[in-house]
Amino acid sequence: MSNRENGELYFQCDFFPSFSDPKPDSNKADTFSSISGSFSLDPNPDDEEEKQRLIAQVLERQNTLDDLSSRVDSVKVENLKLKSENQVLGQYIENLMAASSVFQSASPKSKKK
Of 9, 15, 43, 112, which shows the fewest CB atoms inside 10 Å? Predict the structure, then answer.
């Protein structure tokens, strides 16, 4: 809950005692103890089973990620090899075309008189 006084905004919280209260309201303390009492530190077998299942999933996904990362690295290496081979083949084809008379530019024929 909020109040606006003199252009300022003040918030009032019923759960915690205000600084002006000489002592906390006992109902508020009971509410806090009932809330904090609902959280147990004792391991529940179902919670432990869920925790183990989640840990297994995380480990499996970590392994999958490692495998995928390795695959990406190997594909990058293969890609570099293929690019290099492509450049060599391209240069070879250019050299063959330059050496062949079929691909030479047509020279102007001499005019007959």
Answer: 112
Q: For residue 21, tell me if it sits in a domain.
A: yes
Residues 16 and 28 sit within 8 Å (Cβ to Cβ): yes
pLDDT, average across residues 29-55:
70
Give the predicted TM-score (pTM) of the model: 0.45
Q: Is 6 left (phi over 0), alpha (psi -120 to 50) or beta?
A: left
Identify whether 78 is part of a domain: yes
Spatial contact of 2 and 12, defined as CB atoms under 8 Å apart = yes
Q: Which domain holds residue 94?
A: 43-101
Contact yes or no for 10/3 (Cβ under 8 A): yes
pLDDT on residue 76 = 98
Residue with tokens 């081979």: 85
Tell me the pLDDT tens digit for each residue of 4-18. 545 555 445 554 444
